[in-house]
Structures are given as structure tokens and as C-alpha cells.
Amino acid sequence: MKNKTKRNKIKTPTIGKSKSGKVSLEQTKPGFFRVKLETSTSPSFEDKVNPDYYKGEIETFDYLKDKLSPEEIAGFCKGNIIGYISRESKKNGVEDLKKAKWYLDKLITLK
Predict the structure, then answer these.
(1) Are residues 87 and 46 in the same domain?
(2) Which of 36, 72, 97, 106 could pair with 68 in a Cys bridge, judged by C-beta atoms 3.0 to 4.6 Å apart?
């Protein structure tokens, strides 16, 4: 009779990032690994732009909008747009462009 053992999946940390997303390895059994690529087009992308930890009783952006003048909140949006566009080729690629777009959409609604 064969001794059946349960194989536990052992997750290993992220091994790198590419312009396409985050690359990690998942050990499926001893000596075997599965490569995983989490892309910015995955369903969880919206959480990366506006994650839950920025939301409480009031969303952080709405709080800032209430506390800053119209000129200050517009400048805040413009600064974030410039920052995300400036770093997209060096850091998170399309994800940063989508974050810039998020702030651009907020800026447009302020007008």
C-alpha cells in the first residue's frame, strides 16, 4: 500500500519586478516551482491605485479636498501626476501611468 502524503504549497517571496508586474515563485513540491506573474491588469489593480488602507470613515483624498483650498488640492493632484509619469519607465510601468490617470481624473472633476 502506498503512503499518501499531503503536499503543502510553500510560498516563496517575490523574486523581482518587471515592467509587466511582480514575479514570484511558488514551490508546489520539493524541487518543483511555479513562476507567478502578477500584472497591473489583474482584477486587484484598483486596490493598488486606491488601496483599502487609504480608506477609513472618510477616504484620504476626500479628507484632503475638505482641508485644502481648491488651488492646493489641484496642485496636489498635479504633483502626483508629474511624479507617477516621471517614474513610470524606471519603476512600475503601466501601473504608474494608471495611478497618474487616477489623479488626472480627480483633477478633472475639480474643474
Answers:
(1) yes
(2) 72
